[in-house]
Amino acid sequence: MPKPRVGITVGDPAGIGPEIAIKAAADPAVLKVCEPCLYGPYHETDLRAFVPGTLSAEAGRVACEAIARAVEDVRLGRIDAIATAPINKEAFALAGIPFKGHTDLLANLTKSEQAVMMFHSEPLRVVLATVHVALREVPQLLTPELLDFIIELTARELPRFGYAAPRIALAGLNPHAGEHGVIGDEDGEVLRPAVDRARARGIDISGPWPGDTVFARASKGAFDVVIACYHDQGLIPVKLLAFGRAVNVTLGLPIVRTSVDHGTAFDIAGQGIADPASLVEAVCLAARLVVGKQ
Q1: Beta strands 247-251 and 256-259, pairing class
Q2: Which of 98, 135, 216, 221 is 20 to 30 A away from residue 234, measured at CA?
Q3: Is the pLDDT of residue 246 over 90?
Q4: pTM to 2 decimals?
Q5: From residue 138, how far is each of 147, 232, 250 by CA, in Å?
């Protein structure tokens, strides 16, 4: 069986993306499992148009175009999956791109109903119910419809990662998961009914569990995946346990897409010292997911 072809988008050309993309594409672990193909400016001559560590609309535009070309090539069968280096959300905004990041851009490009962000690592897997929104908006966004969708998608997608009957935990929104209504009523009135509905559909899910302990329990094997209510609730434990080794996976897309667990690192861009480890992990996971679909 031929190796899968994984497109690596270089992300924001003023960040560390081009550097880690080149390093990842040449890494023996990557070459063992796939044929990498780079998208976006990565040659030294092409990168001269961008100042390392500097925001620009052009960098945002170029990064977006590379992602769009890679998605189109998956559609046309030229590549089998994509792994993305980090983009800069401010550069997207400067370029007038109406998306806050890869996840909603990819949902638009693939005409998906809704894409969901999951972080996959050996010690911990986390799905985010909400992503790039202000914290004050989270309670209103955690609707019964959204929670049903997130839970159903998580249960359906986790078998691809080796969990045939995933044990899912839902993290509480409020401290101590609301303490039976003493510290907020969302956990009892919105989250717990969502868990009950999912269990009635045969999904192995429990919660809501207090956010200050559920991730530790999952990392010790009590659960296969935790659904976090908001961005930092889920990403702080993942990055504490596996920063540089975790992989961002987009669930709900018709294509395989993985990414790094870090940003553009403008502070070290252009210095040749960026660590490609997370992108190497992302490319290798993308290749494994492709093989698993065949």
Answers
A1: antiparallel
A2: 98
A3: yes
A4: 0.90
A5: 12, 12, 20
Alpha-carbon span 50 to 104, nearest angstrom: 25
- 216 phi-psi bin (left φ>0, alpha ψ -120 to 50, beta other): alpha
Best CA proximity match to 257, nearest among 129, 143, 87, 122: 87
**Within a 10 A sphere around the Cβ of 175, how many other Cβ atoms?**
14
Query: Beta-carbon neighbour count of residue 134 at 10 Å?
Result: 8
Q: How far is CA 220 from the centre of its chain?
A: 22
CA distance 259 to 142: 25
Pick the closest to residue 27 from 8, 2, 12 (CA basis): 8
Predicted confidence (pLDDT) at residue 216 exceeds the cutoff of 70:
yes
Neighbouring CB atoms inside 10 A of 14's CB total 27
Tens-digit pLDDT profile for residues 250-260: 999 999 999 99
